[in-house]
Amino acid sequence: MDMTGEQRIAATQQAVWAALNDAEVLRQSIPGCESLEKLSDTEMAAKVKLQIGPVRANFSGKVTLSDLDPPNSYKISGEGSGGAAGFAKGGAAVRLSEDGGATLMRYEVKAEVGGKIAQLGGRLIDSTAKKLADEFFQRFTTIVGGGGAPAEAAPAPAKKSWFGWLKWWLGKLLKSRASA
């Protein structure tokens, strides 16, 4: 999977660079991130809980920064294992440039998934990746752009369709039979 994009952030290039290297800002920005620990100036350990289609997984992995050119660019690479759900590995080249009092962040991502996740199909994986990237940038931009920590997202209201009700009812039935 390959993905490219850019995001304009209402903060100085130096502030964006500092945030990209701040484990707490990244932890708050990464969807599903349960922990992000800075091991050194170029390494972090992460635990992320994600759902991709019907597959839910807890990923544990390591992230490495390389080709550092502060405050202009770096490469970030990582690999994580989600147990039976599979694995994900990849990297991104991130470039920052001043843009009229704000910062333009450009990125090029290359990623690979395997295991059950890979069996879901490219379209579902690509759309989930885009959704997660959009969510990351929304949170990151809120934090770095002066909005403070993002508010916890409210859960989506339950759909009132017959399929949603049936799914709920079957789940309850199966749980009650499993505990009997």
Average pLDDT confidence is: 82
How are the strands ordered across the major sheet? 1-7-6-5-4-3-2
What is the general shape? globular
The first-to-last residue Cα distance is: 44 Å
Which CATH-level-2 architecture?
A: 2-Layer Sandwich
Percent of residues in helices: 25-40%
- The proportion of strand residues reads 35-45%
CATH class: Alpha Beta
Structural class: alpha+beta
CATH homologous superfamily annotation: START domain
Cα-atom radius of gyration: 19 Å
- DSSP strand count: 7
Number of domains: 1
Sequence stretches where pLDDT stays below 50 over 5 or more residues: 148-163
CATH topology: Alpha-D-Glucose-1,6-Bisphosphate, Chain A, domain 4
Structural summary, described in words:
This protein is of the alpha+beta class and 180 residues long. It has one domain: START domain (Alpha-D-Glucose-1,6-Bisphosphate, Chain A, domain 4), CATH 3.30.530.20. Helix content is 33%, strand content 41%. It is built from 4 helices and 7 strands. It has helices at residues 13-20, 23-29, 122-147, 162-179; strands spanning 2-9, 33-38, 43-52, 55-69, 73-81, 87-99, 102-114. A hairpin with a 2-residue loop joins strand 3 and strand 4 (55-69). It is globular and about 45 Å long.
